[in-house]
Amino acid sequence: MNPQPDFGDIMQGIREVIQLSSNIRKPCSHCSTGPGLDDDVGEGINHYLGHGFRILHVGQETQWAPDGKQLWHVTVAILGK
Ligand SMILES: [Zn+2]
Q1: Distance 3 CA to ligand 1 centre (A)
Q2: Cα of 49 to ligand 1 centre, how many Å?
Q3: In this structure, which of 19, 42, 45, 59 has its CB flanked by the most CB atoms within 10 Å?
Q4: Which of 21, 24, 30, 22 is nearest to 53 (CA)?
Q5: What angle do CA 55, 27, 47 make, to 5 degrees?
């Protein structure tokens, strides 16, 4: 059995979490000005930092492409506030 992950204080006070992905573009859940469809994950992170979010995790996710033949390596960022 795996031990419970120790999040320490990183989740302290977090009431809302969002995920950014390098292959999925979603409009900001707090305003209508960004991040843009052409913005990368870094620009998305910068946008949400401006709304008071902080970075909880940045990592990689592997997905099958829709054709089922290729693997996509996607960068994801989890932010919370
Ligand atoms: Zn916004």
Answers
A1: 37
A2: 9
A3: 45
A4: 30
A5: 40
Amino acid at 75: T
What phi, psi does 24 have (nearest 5°)? -125, 125
Amino acid at 34: G
Q: Which two tokens stand for residue 53?
A: 């979010």
Instruction: Please write the tens of the pLDDT for every residue from 19-56.
Output: 999 988 888 989 988 787 778 899 999 999 999 999 99
Token pair recorded at residue 25? 């573009």
- How far apart CA 36 and CA 72 sit, in angstroms, is 22
Task: Give the C-alpha separation, 12 to 20, whole Å.
Answer: 21
Distances (CA, A) of 5 to 22, 69, 73: 26, 34, 25
